[in-house]
Amino acid sequence: MKTIMPCLWFDKEAEEAARYYCSIFKTAELGNITRYGNEGEEIHGGKPGQVLTVEFSLNGQKFLALNGGDHFKFNEAISFQVMCESQAEVDHYWEKLSAGGPVQAQQCGWLKDKFGVSWQIVPTVLPTLLAGKDRAQADRVMKAL
Fold it and tell me: Which residues of 41-80 are buried (b: 16+ CB within 10 A; e: fewer)?
């Protein structure tokens, strides 16, 4: 059992984001959805019945999406790596995660999706190439990135 579950803070797009991510990954599952009740509305501002949290999993990694309001925004200090076995996989995740909004393509296979979440789409061979003893090869790989 994994004991760490990332929690992603959204304004009010938690369910939309969870469904979006689940549509992209081959092994994905939408889990429990909780809703705001009557208690605490004066503090959290959520209307009774609105989505509070959505549990979902992508390739066996569980996540929690929280509708917490517009207090916090995503940034590149946290990103999710998607390790890819082939160029077809790289292309699939890049295309799907960069669809549907003001996406920001960044260096080294990074992108920000339409929700502002940062992703790294990485060929599985990359760490080996960068850490290899052939420093000239590693430098060429880094330059290509």
Answer: eeeeebeeeebbbbbbbbeeeebbbebbeeeeebeeeebb
